[in-house]
Amino acid sequence: METSGSDGRQPLAHPLLKGQKALVTGANSGIGKATAIGLGRAGADVVVNYVAGRDAAEDVVREIESFGVRAYAHEADVSQEKQVSDMVDRMVQKFGTIDVMVANAGLQRDAPLTDMTMAQWQKVLDVNLTGQFLCAREAAKEFMRRGVVPEVSRSVGKIICMSSVHQIIPWAGHVNYASSKGGVQMLMATLAQELAPHRIRVNAVAPGAIRTPINRSAWDTPEAEADLLRLVPYDRVGDPDDIANVVAALASDLFDYVVGTTLYVDGGMTLFPGFATGG
Ligand code: NAD
């Protein structure tokens, strides 16, 4: 590939994902945005899903196109069955198929248990868990229809679930979110077991504390950031690119034998840092 991105970074000498078609949900903000751009930089054509904020999605499309690959924005709510199947159908019409599904879209609706409404509980489960089920199902149907294309990838397709350290770390005041991510862990593992015989690889990425709009209050003052860093042995808040780089590698054939795994990308947050000096 000859082009470099608008951020001035050099293109990869051998694009990891050349010829692959990727869809990233929730791709006009934060981790999804960085991931969509990262997959484009790695040589993939990319569908930029968003639910609100068309201008931001179109900005991501333009940045991806600057790498010399194709991209377009698609509005869809991942918790709505018909909208997800229409989104994948349109991708197959426009790009011919799908090789990589990154089920990234997610949100929080925080409250202590006794204040949490049914609507808060249901919204988080609908988007964070049901949304990933729908995206995985629609991608898997197309993977199975198409079969392996050896010059594109050794596997038939890749599904990458965006989980969280809260798939294993309990989180008071966020029972809906932690339950949804615990669900994502078992969704991922069960789908990995079910789909591996079809040469479909299902894995998850579990970010720790990444600087995005979802958790702004946790890092946007020096005091909040210092408090947060007590939980991060590596002593820095993560950037969306930390996740994007791992997703690109995981989607590539470098990781062809990695099936049913969660990659924690968390600066050591899951290492029980409180025990470094206590216990
Ligand atoms: P973000 O708020 O910047 O991005 C979330 C994206 O999901 C947005 O584009 C939003 O519009 C989209 N979205 C929300 N509901 C949707 C729906 N119904 N349909 C389609 N898209 C929808 O937050 P982020 O930090 O980039 O979060 C991305 C993912 O990473 C989430 O699944 C989140 O749980 C996970 N995560 C983030 C962190 C972190 O520290 N930022 C840590 C662990 C896990």
Automatic annotation (TrEMBL):
It comes from the Bacteria. Keywords: Oxidoreductase. The keyword Oxidoreductase applies. It is an enzyme of class 1 (oxidoreductase). Its EC number is 1.1.1.47. SUPFAM superfamilies: NAD(P)-binding Rossmann-fold domains. NCBIfam families: PRK07231.1 (NF005559). Belongs to the short-chain dehydrogenases/reductases (SDR) family. This is Glucose 1-dehydrogenase. It comes from Streptomyces umbrinus.
